[in-house]
Amino acid sequence: MNREQARAKAEALVARMTVDEAASQLKFDAPAIERLGVPAYNWWNEALHGVARAGVATSYPQAIGIAAGFDPDLTRRLGDISATEGRAKYNAASAHGDRDIYKGLTFWSPNVNIFRDPRWGRGHETYGEDPFLTAQLGAAYVKGLQGDGEVMKAAACAKHFAVHSGPEALRHEFDARASKKDMAETYLPAFHALVDAGVEAVMGAYNRTNGEPCCGSPALQKILREDWRFEGHFVSDCWAVRDFHEHHKVTACPEESVTLALKNGCDVNCGCTYQFVMSAYAKGMISEADIRRSAVRLFTCRYMLGILGEGSDFDSIPCDVVECPEHLAAAKKASEQACVLLKNDGMLPLENIKTLGVIGPNANSRAALVGNYHGTSSRYVTVLEGLQDALEGKARVLYAEGSHLFKDRIEHLSQPHDGIAEALAVAERSDAVVLVVGLDETLEGEEGDTGNAAASGDKLDLLLPEGQRVLMDAVLKAGKPTAIVLMAGSAIDLGEAGEKANAVLLTWYPGARGGSTVADILLGRISPSGKLPVTFYHNDQLERMPAFTDYSMQGRTYRYFAEEPLYPFGYGLTYCDCHVSARREGNRIEAEVVNEGPMDTDEVVQVYVQNEGSAHAPRNPRLCAFARVHIPAGGFASATFEIPDERLCVIDDEGSSVMEGTPVFYVGFGQPDPRTEALTGKKAVKV
């Protein structure tokens, strides 16, 4: 049913409730109202890259890896798979009376915050640093999750609104200050795009934005509900309302926090503070209308999902769909598109190998496959296992862990760097070495992650832990052809190891079975085609960037960075020699890509625009269109872009969108910058 019909039903149902019953429904773990036939419902569920925390589900690459695919169509397909499997699991759980957390149909995904600073531990949950790319992929995932039928397949949630990207240690008390220009140009566009795409829910951030706590902000609610006409429901981040009085100190007690949140549009509280709703009501701080307004919004969502009343065709989706061959194939495709080839002197793809050495703490790590907010897979394929499977009967695969992920020794009673000797023995006996290093969710993630407690999940620098640096240095000195496989969710500076290695393949967190994809790429069964959705900086450049707590965009991300990066946004190599040509007529650009390489490959054609003569345009050309194309060996592919005028506007200091300067377009496989040209040997075409 449409929103108007669902709202009418919700209003009628809520009108039959007592005030106390209506108030009880504003908690994330809403209890049943048996006399009205309302079952219990838990609003908290996750589907960042596949259904999470609810048992077995198809596992995709982490969101940052999906972003590296630059493929909205596949992203929408992944959203649909999440909804299908979520429905199957909801049906099975409900049939057994299980209405626990992570069993509902309201998925608190996607995360469309801008990955503005490479130190942020949760950046790998996002679609990167560019507002346009984030908006395109986020909207696609929302449409996939929610579907386009009469009944909403699942409910998506745009989070965390707004201006939220660390530091994790300060998130409960921090005030993120952003100018009108940065708000309109960087921090809000993706949320606006998701509202336009029909997203059902928006989650508020922990922090304050320009002085107001995000889960009780009049200014943000005005933007959301008045300016953008958002009609869905608003949820707090978990225990964020409690932060009002405990950390932000903008209120004095729970009742005041409830009042600030509820009167400013926070309909459902993830946390425990809304247990004080009736106390605030009894004290006259909130009205019955305040309570019923939010309850109506929440029941409107439940009716739109078809889980109250008549039901829907989705009720018959069986558990058989979970990890079905079609879903696993889509996840495999996503992992293929995610991997970014950062360097290759010709070593890759591996050929004529009789003995391959696989070394490193992430080589046989399941944790490095999945990132955070992950589900459970019925099977995991690590990089080591993927290579072993692919080379069975063809070559010998030797393995050494080499180092702990972040400690200075593998075994507690050993001397430091106790894995080096074994790693060298493997390298010396191998024709080539695959050195698998990086991070996992314990080193970059949310506040409280166990392996990085000192930084609350954020990174202090862009280097790998010392034990891994010692391992890389030792193995590279062995002198064997060496490819580094980097498994991480953010910018890493490999230092001298990156310079000395013959090849560097970035896999992000490629999904539970991602090791098979990595093997396919290393062995040349498929060509890598991912592109960086974030800038990779040199570690020493952090010293010259704005402070982590500074939310100004000047000097950060590819649009405003003034130095030469390690690897630029939009960059990524393939195994093929492709060339692009383009012509333009007005805002219409036609591009053709020719593949002179020996194998089929995908490429991502990227269009950047710079408003020459504008005083308000970003420092560097910005992404305004892109398309993933498949080009057969010796063949060609074409892409046509119709670029709307609004993408060519710039944002002035008052946050207004204005047409200013002369738009100049560049078409290529990356940015029109000297570093991309030097790394690829190709210059973007100016049209």
The largest β sheet comes out as: 6 strands, mixed
| Structural class designation | alpha/beta
Biggest sheet: strands side by side, in what order?
A: 9-14-13-12-10-11
Radius of gyration, in Å, reads 25 Å
Q: What top-tier CATH class of the largest domain fits best? A: Alpha Beta
Which features does this protein show?
4-stranded antiparallel sheet; Rossmann fold; alpha/beta; 6-stranded mixed sheet; Immunoglobulin-like; TIM Barrel; 21 helices; globular
Structure in a nutshell:
The protein has 687 residues and is an alpha/beta fold. It has three domains: 3-321, TIM Barrel (Alpha-Beta Barrel); 339-527, 3-Layer(aba) Sandwich (Rossmann fold); 578-686, Sandwich (Immunoglobulin-like), CATH 2.60.40.10.
What does this entry look like structurally?
There is one protein chain. The chain is of the alpha/beta class and 687 residues long. It has 21 helices and 23 strands. The strands form seven sheets. The chain has a six-stranded mixed beta sheet, sandwiched between helices. Strands 18-17-22-23 form a four-stranded antiparallel beta sheet, with no helix packed on it. It is globular.
Record the SSE blueprint.
Blueprint: H1 3-15, H2 19-24, E1 29-30, E2 41-42, H3 63-68, H4 72-95, H5 131-146, E3 157-161, E4 175-176, H6 180-187, H7 189-196, E5 201-204, E6 208-209, E7 212-213, H8 218-227, E8 233-235, H9 240-248, H10 254-263, H11 277-282, H12 288-304, H13 325-338, E9 340-344, E10 355-359, H14 367-370, H15 383-391, E11 396-400, H16 420-428, E12 432-438, H17 466-477, E13 482-487, H18 496-500, E14 503-506, H19 514-522, H20 557-560, E15 578-585, E16 588-595, E17 601-612, E18 622-631, E19 636-642, E20 650-651, E21 657-658, E22 662-668, H21 674-680, E23 685-686
Parallel strand pairs: 3-5, 4-6, 5-8, 10-11, 10-12, 12-13, 13-14
Antiparallel strand pairs: 1-2, 6-7, 9-14, 15-16, 16-19, 17-18, 17-22, 20-21, 22-23
Helix pairs in contact: 1-12, 4-5, 4-13, 5-7, 9-10, 15-19, 16-17
